[in-house]
Amino acid sequence: MSTIQLRTPVPGPKSKEWMERRTVAVPRGAYHVTPVFVARAEGAVLEDVDGNRMIDFAGGIGCLNAGHRAPRVVAALRAQLDRFLHTCFHVTPYSAYVRLAERLNAITPGKFPKKTLLVNSGAEAVENSIKIARAYTKRPAVICFEDAFHGRTMLTLSLTSKTHPYKAGFEPFLSEIYRVPYAYCYRCAYSMTYPGCGVFCAHHLEDTFRRVVAAESVAAIIAEPVLGEGGFIAPPKEFFSVLQEICRKHGILFIADEVQTGFGRTGRMFASEHYGIAPDLLVLAKSLGGGMPLSAVTGRAEVMDAAGIGGLGGTFGGNPMSCEAALAIIDTFEQEPLLARANTLGEHFTARARAWQRRWPLVGDVRGLGAMQAIELVRSTETREPAEAEAKQIVRFCYEHGLVVLSTGSYGNVIRLLMPLVITDEQFEEGLDVLEAALDSISQSERFS
What we know:
By secondary structure, the protein is α/β, with parallel strands linked by helices. The model has no long low-confidence stretch (mean pLDDT 97). Helices cover 36% and strands 16% of the residues. The strands form 3 sheets. A 7-stranded mixed β-sheet has the order 4-10-9-8-7-5-6, sandwiched between helices. A 4-stranded mixed β-sheet has the order 1-2-3-13.
């Protein structure tokens, strides 16, 4: 039986009614990709208030690698509910915070002693990683990358690259933030081709120290191992080893933002493992909490201890419910073959997407690691003009036909996959069928005929 069951057009009448109420009560800046209101969810399936059942390729924007209502998470939350909800770790601490810190210290890359700070969101964790790096190095500057996304607070917006919709109208941003090109091989900033380029973009960092900001002024370089909002761009395998070598040469900390790549999305527990690097500071969020709000900064013990007593924290940071959920998520990854599943899903998608690329010029690039996969849409394979409008049409076609999927990228022309790793083969195939039908529909237009 098909998983997708549509009882009404999407969005249905009840979702439309709720959207009218939302328009009155909620500011327009809080955007919605899919205009349906959810009633329940399980695994990789959503059901809306109109009774429409849809396959989820968005995973709450990457927060549900272990699935909606993962059984161990639900059990852990129910057990904690009977104990207490909140005390504030900085007032009366509790064991779940410490137990989670211990486990993150143990499983993150690097054999050196580590410590972990728990906070609420990816942006909050990124901000704290910068605070910690500055406290340790006594340096002000931070280097980030073009096409990066690190959050929506003022510091993280200063690090984020994409102007619309994230940055426009919120200026001015913070000083001592410097941006350099990422290893976006499909659109190389230096008009070079890998591997003949010798990862010039990484080595060019030395030129940045001569012409933009002095190395001795730089506290940290922060990067996503695979760009998330920037378009699911996985750099060549040498890229990060070169960057880390340059960082060590100049006493600069390397911060890996694994908010979206962490917890199995790329087929490894952490994407840094693909590149053989051990970041000085590693930032986690999204699927860490299994659907609960939680983030972490895990790093070298001596670096993490640089901030003075009381210099780090927050009222809700490391909430006990979220900590118990995260501990259950780690158990799930240790006891279930989700990493192997991520690689299987990625391999299957890549094979099918390569066929789409051969069939339709609209599909310009197929890329990713593990189950963090994407296709970049272009209007011309020669000019590689971004097909942003077509990406929006595909997203709409998909949700109207029972598949929740997201676009991304600095040009808004990338379709990305963030389905829960617990998705069944049948559900995954059914979802890909809808995506294929969307590509076929758009490609029938005169522009691509």
